[in-house]
Design a protein that fits this description.
Layout (H helix, E strand, L loop, with lengths): L1 H19 L1 H4 L1 H22 L10 H31 L2 H7 L4 H27 L10 H25 L5 H15 L12 H7 L3 H14 L6 H25 L21
């Protein structure tokens, strides 16, 4: 019972942190999505027309699932990475570690904030999409399930990033130089059928391509890649990185080491 209370307390704090600075956590994805729809959907999309394999759908309709996944992935990841390192920076993590709180509760407590933020941002992006395209309610359970799994996976990845981070710059390196390129090369704005065979092979090595197509199947009912491959891939990586994150917590990696407090000047947005 005490362990459950500890888990709920940590989860409640992580979730309340999202709403406390909602202008930084919820509003920016809505503005960014609206700009994507205006620029890529309304202006450029009219010139592009239909994507091969998605006949009958406008370019902006093709783009909606990818933009939702873009927002869910980046926000779930960033929320947990900054939240965990923020706890280290404020030395709140030391109190958590020396308490009788089990490591699995620490893991679930931190990633719960990322899952909730991923869901909230996904709902906001869908709401914004309604002003540009018609959103159907088919396969609603599959959509919710895919958003949950994606939020869970990238929340765990964000936690691993936060564990290894030694300063605030470290929590932005992976999203900037690894995650962002993978996302934009993951079939959000195009179908890989328009690429050459060499680039199609390279694109299929990108796991985010399968995640985006799994959600695109849930929303549009069609996908250029077998959606079952995306489902299995998400489950596999979620299990793998959850085990890795739990092992790191058990071994005290990143939690028992002294945190570097150089360059303390930090914009509030970096804590989002």
């Amino acid at each position: 019972m005490i362990k459950l209370i500890a888990l709920l307390t940590l989860s409640n704090y992580q979730i309340r942190r999202i709403f406390r600075i909602w202008i930084q956590t919820i509003v920016p994805p809505a503005i960014t999505t609206a700009l994507y729809f205006l620029i890529f959907g309304q202006l450029i999309g009219r010139r592009i027309g239909e994507m091969p394999g998605y006949e009958g759908l406008s370019y902006i309709e093709f783009m909606v699932p990818g933009l939702i996944m873009l927002s869910v992935i980046t926000n779930a990841y960033g929320n947990v990475a900054s939240g965990f390192y923020g706890a280290k920076f404020q030395k709140a993590l030391e109190e958590i570690i020396i308490s009788p709180m089990p490591n699995w509760a620490v893991l679930l407590g931190f990633i719960s904030g990322g899952i909730v933020r991923g869901f909230l941002v996904g709902v906001v992006v869908i709401f914004v999409s309604i002003f540009f395209v018609e959103i159907t309610v088919d396969n609603i359970l599959l959509r919710i399930f895919s958003v949950f799994l994606t939020s869970l996976l990238f929340s765990v990845l964000g936690l691993i990033n936060g564990i290894f981070a030694k300063n605030f710059d470290d929590i932005s390196i992976v999203p900037t130089f690894i995650l962002t390129p993978l996302i934009y090369l993951g079939g959000i704005f195009y179908t890989i059928e328009i690429l050459s065979s060499e680039w199609q092979f390279i694109s299929k090595l990108n796991p985010i391509l399968y995640i985006v197509n799994f959600f695109r199947f849930a929303m549009l009912g069609s996908s250029e890649i077998d959606p079952m491959q995306g489902f299995v891939l998400i489950l596999f990586f979620t299990f793998l990185f959850s085990v890795i994150a739990y092992t790191l917590l058990v071994r005290g990696v990143g939690t028992k080491e002294s945190v570097s407090y150089t360059h303390l000047t930090l914009p509030t947005s970096d804590l989002v």
